[in-house]
Amino acid sequence: CRSCLVKYLEENNTCPTCRIVIHQSHPLQYIGHDRTMQDIVYKLVPGLQEAEMKKQREFYHKLGMEVPGDIKGETCSTKQHLDSHRNGETKPDESSNKETSEEKQEEDNDYHRSDEQVSICLECNSSKLRGLKRKWIRCSAQATVLHLKKFIAKKLNLSSFNELDILCNEEILGKDHTLKFVVVTRWRFKKAPLLLHYRPKMDLL
């Protein structure tokens, strides 16, 4: 888990399993959140996700902080729901269905807001394309360069996102690079936001 890795990497710069060097001086910056594995574990182990969320809430409440990703009034409404259920004001089936639908709606409307976020400035460096009205955006660190290409193409009414190149430090970025990868490899030790440029695609010979 992350807490074990952080403790280990405070004194070491190698992988605890295979002993390969992660990074000579900043191994902690290369810890990635494996959400796929986490989802699989949550599905395999009954009640684990609920227990983890409970521990997280207790931890933040003990520090007197707001729980990250919490919707205001959510705790209050949950308490009211439990109190009314205990008093027999609602039918068990009805309350269960309502709770399930609310959870599903909340999950569907998350839009990766609970992910690590990256602030970006998108500048145009070509006279053939116009600049964006709103060039400052904030999105998930798991978003890829391809997502940015599609976003820019939609905003500029381009026929295809394949007509664009996105650059960082004058270097063309691969479409499958995540923004987290770009920040770690090309924007380390620089202040936010991450500055990216876009231009019409150039065919290199």
TrEMBL record:
Keyword match Lyase: no
**What would be one Pfam family of this protein?**
RAWUL
Q: Which domain of life is it from?
A: Eukaryota
Keywords recorded for this protein, A-Z:
Metal-binding, Nucleus, Repressor, Transcription, Transcription regulation, Zinc, Zinc-finger
Biased composition range(s): Basic and acidic residues: 80-103
Record-annotated RAWUL domain positions: 135-199
Any one GO MF annotation of this record: zinc ion binding
GO CC, any one term: PcG protein complex
The reply to whether tRNA processing figures as a keyword in the UniProt entry is no
Annotated transmembrane regions? none
Where is region (Disordered) located?
Answer: 71-112
Protein name stated in the entry: Polycomb group RING finger protein 3
Q: Which organism does this record belong to?
A: Ibidorhyncha struthersii
Q: Gene for this protein?
A: Pcgf3_1
